[in-house]
Amino acid sequence: MRTKRTFRLEMKHHRRLDKEPLRSVYASMTSQKEPKKLKVLVTGGAGFIGSHLVGGLIKEECEVSVLDDFSTGKLENIEHGLSQPKLRLVEGDVREPQKVKKAIGDSEAVFHLAAITSVPYSVAHPDVTRDVNVKGTLNLLEASLNSGVEHFVFISSCAVYGEAEHLPISEEEPTRPLSPYAESKLEAERKCREFYAKHGLRTTILRPFNVYGPGMRNDQYGGVIAKFIERLQSGKPPIIYGDGTQTRDFIHVQDIVTAMMMVMGDEKAAGQTFNVATGIPTTINQLAQLLTQLLDDEKIKPQYRAARQGDLKHSYARIVKARNSLGFEPKIALKQGLLNLIT
Ligand SMILES: NC(=O)c1ccc[n+]([C@@H]2O[C@H](COP(=O)([O-])OP(=O)(O)OC[C@H]3O[C@@H](n4cnc5c(N)ncnc54)[C@H](O)[C@@H]3O)[C@@H](O)[C@H]2O)c1
Fold it and tell me: What is the CATH number of the domain that holds 93?
């Protein structure tokens, strides 16, 4: 029997799929025509990746709202934009439905990045992680469905793959999450697919690999690039856990921003999942060598420590799907991206 609610959702479903899709922000960036001034919500907009996206959207004349609780994000990341009428800040938690509703307002598109992002933190606090990353996403999806949102882009993570059997890792690779963080991202992905399949909300899932660039975290939960740079700049050797032959796929934050903008409003992206990466494996030994060269400190040799439990051996992506469907091509080579960071 159809309940009132399922009927309402079915009606919404039909209305939504009949609607004209949003024009891609990227298409408007590259066309000669006046860009459409999209209204966009960025959750986690004060964080590392979110603040770069906010900057990119404002440049494209979008009207941007940010929902952030500043747990790891910083006001200074978006302060420059707050002087402009195009940026609205809602301070609050994605777990609070009222705050989420307020933040969505009349947004046409949502980029959902707010999350607990640290794997070690998630191991110590699995319940909070699940609450923020899954319940928070569900709040966003429900509020988007009940408002005028046309496209919902969820920023997941390559962590959902765990230790992959096939390399490079394609979107078809079975998922084997190895931490509460990865599990929460996978569950949030399922919710996004469900809202697309059952309710017709256009959702797209992006799985970034290792993102680096200006403003990345350099606290205890920061990534390997931040840690190596910090140690090398204070004259200390980088510490490598294991033999350093483990691989990662490092992608510059500007390339991630480009991918996010390309996906927005692209009809082909609705209901799809894309890796966002370079497709190039770099070993941790190569990374250490590159940084010591760039910092002109080749006398400094890395120190090796026992491999850490749970560290992945190999993680690099196949990016054919994003390339073919979206025309995505990463532009910033690792050497160039690192050089920009340290000079
Ligand atoms: N940095 C990477 O290498 C990487 C790789 C894959 C996926 N991701 C994903 O990209 C997104 C952004 O990551 P980032 O590296 O910019 O991390 P970040 O910690 O800098 O950004 C997360 C933002 O979310 C906010 N936030 C956290 N909990 C919140 C809550 N309950 N309510 C409202 N806001 C909250 C934080 O204050 C912060 O501004 C995350 O979803 C992360 O899982 C990042």
Answer: 3.40.50.720
